[in-house]
Amino acid sequence: HHDSQDKIEASKLRLHICKTERQLTHMKQRLLHWDDVAEQQQLVEQERQQKQQKEQEQEEAAQLPHQKKKKKKKKGRLGPETWKLRGAARPAQEVYDFDTRYVDPHIQAHEEAKRKAKRSRNILALYKGQFG
User: Fold this and answer.
1) pLDDT (0 to 100) of residue 59
2) Which of the 8 DSSP states describes residue 111?
3) Which helix (H) or strand (E) holds 115?
């Protein structure tokens, strides 16, 4: 019994150390490839998620425990505006690419990656020796 308790503690410690090492490598990668724009977007996204979670918790708290959640009413059969036509019935603008403003997503992703590489800085190299 005593041995198993020690094994459990050792495995908990090992798992905690692995988790901390993963967090450390993630943080190091962020610092090596720091991007102010991406970090700002990440902060805004986190704040939005926290606000959404708080609102959801408030709604759940405001709802009385004996009340059941309202079931969503089913909408009837969807009309022709939602139909996806196939074959000969498919309109020409869907079949052929008439849009001259078309942007290749691969080229767009490549250009975005180039812009991000230009923006990114190596924080560890910039502030070398200033970390505690």
Assistant:
1) 84
2) H
3) helix 105-119
Amino acid, single-letter form, for residue 62? A
| Closest-CA residue to 121 (of 31, 14, 25) | 31
Residue type, 45: E
Question: Are 124 and 31 within 8 A, CB to CB?
Answer: yes
Q: Please, what are the averages of pLDDT over each run of 10 residues along the chain (132 residues)?
A: 86 96 94 88 94 90 69 83 88 75 89 92 84 66
Alpha-carbon gap, residue 132 to 129, rounded angstroms: 8
Structure tokens at 115: 């812009």
Beta bridge partners of 34: 121
Q: Please indicate, yes or no, whether the overall pTM of this predicted structure exceeds 0.90.
A: no
Q: Name the packing angle between helices 105-119 and 36-62 (round to 10°).
A: 100
Report the residue count for the chain.
132
